[in-house]
Amino acid sequence: TSHAHNTYGHTPKHTSPRLSLTQHPTTMLLLPKPPTTAKLFLTGATVGPLVDSIHNQALLQYDILPISIPQPDAAAAAADPILCTSWLIPPLLGVAYVVLGGILPRIMENFVVVPMRRVLNSQDNEAMAKPTPQQLQTRAIIAVVTTALIIKLSELLQTQSLPLLPDGSYPDLTIMLFVALSQWLLLDGTPAALLAASITSIGGPLSELPFVAGGFWHYIPSAADYVPLASLAESGGGSGVLLDSLANTFLGDGYQDLSLSSITGPCYFAVTMDSIALGRWFDAQDGEDEM
User: Which residues are within 8 A (CB) of 94 and not within 5 positions of it... i.e. 6 or more apart?
Assistant: First the structure.
């Protein structure tokens, strides 16, 4: 009798055993199969820039290899372009979708969620009723559409003064966080996805610092409300000196002034959710159980 038989009673013929720490080597725990990796990369490199461009005009300007497609109507030539991105973005988002949709959720599931279940001796209810490939496809499409709507909301909050809301970044950020968490709750609800998206909502904006420091793009003054390294040199102690030295080495002398936009955090959360939904759908197409 197999391990899967001992755990769940039986293994349906149309599914493969669930990934677990005892069943697969580390590389299989961390990496999706090549077909899923390729599909995630291609989706990130094509759909990703289109979705990302929805709010780019309101947040940043690209300084290296920019792409700007104007409105076709001459009367609307002065309006925001249809597409505002850079040739750098497709490969970057291709890699990001592989990491966010294929690698990071596997790390969270197999090295955080599964061990916690063992410590708490709780049952894995997700294995009881797995969604069908058609359901996963529907969730993936809805996730991409809702992510586009969330990013559109970030543009509206950045450019418009909504009634009954005070001006400032904190109300906008609160609304964005609520909407992003609602997307997770309605479309996914798994601890692994929540952990992956939460980590990305913090680390995603910070990962842009080398590109901002390198002059690839910059946030416009009206959106640049987040200066994460402003007080790094003043943190004191040996760790503060070390961090200051590292920041100077990798980001340059003016790293304290590098500015981002706080509203991008929830956007990264949403992008992680649609990457995970796409990864699960692609896994199902490849005959692998979704995480």
Answer: 40, 41, 42, 44, 45, 48
Has residue 265 got a pLDDT over 70?
yes
Task: Give every CB contact of residue 261 below 8 A, 6+ residues apart in sequence.
Answer: 59, 60, 158, 205, 219, 223, 224, 225, 226
Say what the pLDDT of residue 79 is. 66
User: How many Cβ atoms from other residues are within 10 Å of residue 274's Cβ?
Assistant: 30
Strand positions, DSSP E, the chain: 60-62, 66-69, 83-86, 217-219
Q: What percent of the chain has pLDDT over 90?
A: 57
Look up residue 248 and give its amino acid: N
- What is the three-class DSSP state of 27? helix
Average pLDDT, the chain: 84
Answer for the pair 282, 35: CB distance below 8 angstroms, yes or no: yes
Give the Cα separation of 56 and 52 in Å (integer).
7
Q: CA-to-CA distance for 117 and 249, rounded, in angstroms?
A: 42
> pTM to 2 decimals?
0.84
How far is it, in rounded angstroms, from Cα 164 to Cα 68?
Answer: 35
**Amino acid making up residue 225:** D
